[in-house]
């Protein structure tokens, strides 16, 4: 009998995307009830939706008079939803197509565009590279500047040199919160390619490239109800663009890609948008409060942001280990590692409700008290490549009678550092070759133990 993986594309046999994990699963793992966990890892609006939206959902699922119900397929043409979205933007419905979240919209675009490559600017949303891999589209990475702004001349150069026909750029950017100004979008749109601007977080920034749509038929804007409207679990997103391109997106999408419940909630969100925007303003207030608090810690450096999250440099301590520590305290933040860019020394913290913010602050105070030593941090500044320090205390920390080296590996893993037997051996050689420097690092660590 043939093994099933024999029939799988070789490149897809290894591909994967690492999303956030379900709250109930994490709750069971850490032993903290879900309502006591500060979920600050996915940029969601955690405030309850208006009661009118829940009423609209119930009505849509149970009443045949609404034209749809749980027993009837949804409208494949998305007639009413597209009309409501168009009305909010002041455009005609033929310029709108909806999907099961903006991820679905991005997927439709990648399937539709005749291109063998796509330009992105890391660090950025990891879904672009994931979808490109599935579509066998070569992802061309044009790194951002040190301040995370898009290097527009470099993007234009890459488009011309590679003849790339697709560019995907978010504004604000996830996970940095950086805006792509409309004047920069205008420059890129003058090239011979389709320019997709992912505006998932535009409602938090108060900016949009909508004013450029009439000027550039090669411009597509993507939006979502997951962030501002608090409907991440419902999955509704949409694209705005030239009617000819939108018509093709409608033609190739899955016929029923927006279900009855999702359409009802999205239409209700548009109707009660002003009520929801009260919670958006609350999230922005909590974001500012969080940034000011983070500035008080030597081991965290928050970047300027225009969204409902803040990206932080983690200094002097291991970012993955810190993320794991906060998790054990019931505070979920996002550690990316290399997904979406080189972010091994960063964590992203979403804005939450006031009670979530207080749980975050308490966990950070605990981390500073339990895990952080200022003198050791200063000593480590001259050793930027060090991710974790281990103290050899001859069996005091762990039982090493069975396997001394295995104990080192497991201790390192506990603090978020993945090392190998070979790396341990190499470290021992370096220590033997330079005992004075090793003693200096050891002494700094000893003061913090």
Describe, in plain words, how this protein is organized in 3D:
This protein is α/β, with parallel strands linked by helices. The chain has helices spanning 23-30, 51-62, 79-89, 101-112, 127-134, 152-162, 182-189, 202-205, 243-252, 260-271, 273-294, 319-328, 354-371, 374-380, 404-414, 421-433, 435-448; strands spanning 38-39, 96-99, 117-120, 138-141, 166-170, 194-198, 219-224, 237-240, 300-302, 309-314, 331-332, 346-350. The strands form four sheets. Strands 2-8-7-6-5 form a five-stranded mixed sheet, sandwiched between helices. Helix 2 (51-62) runs antiparallel to helix 10 (260-271) and helix 14 packs antiparallel against helix 17 (435-448). The longest helix has 22 residues, at 273-294. The protein is globular, with a radius of gyration of 25 Å. The chain starts with 22 loop residues before the first helix and ends with a helix. The model is unreliable at 436-449 (pLDDT under 50).
């Amino acid at each position: 009998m043939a093994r099933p993986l024999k029939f799988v594309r070789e490149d897809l046999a290894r591909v994967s995307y690492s999303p956030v994990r379900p709250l109930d699963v994490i709750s069971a793992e850490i032993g903290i009830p879900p309502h006591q966990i500060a979920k600050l890892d996915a940029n969601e609006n955690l405030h309850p939706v208006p009661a009118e939206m829940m009423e609209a959902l119930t009505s849509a699922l149970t009443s045949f008079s609404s034209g749809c119900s749980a027993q009837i397929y949804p409208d494949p043409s998305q007639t009413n939803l597209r009309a409501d979205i168009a009305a909010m933007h002041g455009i005609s419905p033929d310029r709108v197509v909806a999907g099961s979240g903006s991820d679905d919209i991005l997927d439709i675009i990648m399937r539709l565009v005749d291109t063998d490559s796509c330009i992105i600017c890391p660090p950025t949303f990891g879904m672009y590279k994931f979808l490109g891999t599935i579509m066998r589209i070569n992802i061309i990475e044009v790194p951002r500047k040190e301040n995370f702004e898009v290097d527009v001349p470099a993007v234009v150069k890459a488009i011309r040199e590679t003849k790339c026909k697709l560019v995907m750029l978010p504004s604000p950017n996830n996970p940095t919160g950086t805006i792509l100004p409309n004047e920069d979008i205008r420059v890129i749109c003058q090239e011979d390619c389709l320019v997709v601007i992912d505006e998932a977080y535009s409602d938090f920034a108060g900016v949009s490239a909508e004013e450029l749509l009439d000027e550039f038929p090669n411009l597509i804007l993507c939006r979502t109800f997951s962030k501002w409207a608090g409907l991440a679990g419902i999955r509704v997103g949409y694209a705005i663009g030239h009617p000819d391109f939108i018509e093709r997106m409608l033609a190739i999408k899955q016929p029923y890609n927006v279900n009855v419940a999702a359409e009802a909630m999205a239409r209700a969100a548009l109707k009660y948008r002003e009520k929801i925007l009260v919670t958006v303003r609350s999230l922005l207030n909590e974001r500012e409060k969080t940034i000011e608090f983070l500035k008080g810690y030597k081991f965290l450096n928050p970047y300027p942001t225009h969204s409902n999250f803040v990206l932080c440099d983690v200094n002097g301590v291991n970012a993955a280990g810190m993320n794991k520590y906060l998790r054990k305290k019931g505070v979920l933040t996002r550690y990316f590692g290399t997904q979406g860019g080189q972010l091994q020394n960063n964590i992203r913290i979403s804005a939450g409700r006031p009670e979530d913010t207080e749980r975050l602050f308490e966990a950070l105070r605990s981390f500073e008290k339990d895990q952080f030593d200022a003198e050791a941090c200063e000593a480590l500044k001259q050793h930027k490549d060090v991710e974790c320090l281990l103290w050899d205390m001859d069996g005091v920390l762990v039982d090493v009678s069975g396997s001394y080296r295995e104990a080192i590996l497991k201790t390192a893993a506990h603090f978020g550092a993945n090392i190998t037997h070979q790396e341990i051996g190499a470290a021992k050689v370096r220590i033997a070759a330079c005992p004075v420097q090793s003693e200096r690092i050891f002494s700094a660590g000893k003061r913090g133990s």
